[in-house]
Amino acid sequence: MRTPTFTMSGQPWVGTRRRARKRPHGGEYARRMAVGLPKNWTGLLEESIAHYWRTLDTQSSKQVSGQADRGRRAAVTGGKQMDGFCRLVAAIAEANGMAKASIYTEAQLEIPGYFRPTKRWDMLVVDRKHLVAALEFKSQRGPSFGNNFNNRTEEALGNASDVWTAYREGAFGIGRPAPWLGWIMMLEDCAASSAAVSLAEPHFKVFPEFRGTSYSDRYQILLRKLVLEKHYSATAFVTATSEGGPRGRYAEPAPDLSIRSLLLAFAGTIATHVAMSKKS
């Protein structure tokens, strides 16, 4: 007996004689699950970029004359420059059905750790005692790219190890689904961050992917490996110059680390949680 040929989603498919079911396209799945981004999300992103640079400039200008390096560090660690990204991701959560009361961006941001009592995240989504998501929004502006890159790497790995071990030990409830972890990195695009950096190899050779890389390249390698090794659910990387940043102009050097990809993954997690909560 000749095996029939069916057409599914516009493509021929050879299968059994059972009636073929047409599979909906990705857009249909998204509409059924109510997964999506607000129409103005790109405007919110541009405003997040502009807010970052405006806040840095404001913080730096408040420093005492003659303390330029200290002022720059205070600007980067001031804690307010990434608030725009908090507002952007919070808007995604609300657009996909999460109650505003379950989204934390300013207070009550601490959750238990395993190697330390608590860790304060930049954003949490906690719904009915369920840790749905935790996100970090980090940035780096020159001139000290080397030291700050190492600090960011250690921070990202330490936070992930801490939260996943705490989850394993039941810190967020027994039998709960794993939380979604996200990390967004903003880097100044300048000569110092885009030039190849030398390597010190007094005893052993570094992995080949690090050869001839800039700090921008190294951040991309880091962010990919954080997801590859399942430390984070999704990561994103965005850059901006000191001239274009205040106007909301930015670049995404790596398509696989785009803000849109991270936001869609986050939206899917939120929509799934909301849908499952309605059934329970």
Descriptive report:
With 280 residues, the protein is of the alpha/beta class. The chain has one domain. The chain has 8 helices and 9 strands. It has a 5-stranded mixed sheet with strand order 3-6-7-8-9, sandwiched between helices. Strands 1-2 form a two-stranded antiparallel sheet. A two-stranded antiparallel sheet has the order 4-5.
Task: Give a summary of the structure in a few sentences.
The protein has 280 residues and is α/β, with parallel strands linked by helices.
Write the layout of secondary structure elements.
Layout (H helix, E strand, L loop, with lengths): L4 E4 L2 E4 L11 H8 L7 H21 L6 H9 L6 H13 L7 E2 L5 E3 L5 E3 L2 E5 L2 E11 L4 H24 L11 E9 L2 H4 L20 H14 L5 E7 L18 H21 L1
Parallel strand pairs: 7-8, 8-9
Antiparallel strand pairs: 1-2, 3-6, 4-5, 6-7
Helix pairs in contact: 2-3, 2-4, 4-8, 5-7
Mean pLDDT: 85
| Number of structural units classed as domains | 1
N-to-C SSE series?
EEHHHHEEEEEHEHHEH
Shape: globular
**What percentage of amino acids are in beta strands?**
15-25%
Main traits of this protein?
280 residues, alpha/beta, 5-stranded mixed beta sheet, two-stranded antiparallel ribbon, 8 helices, 17% strand, globular
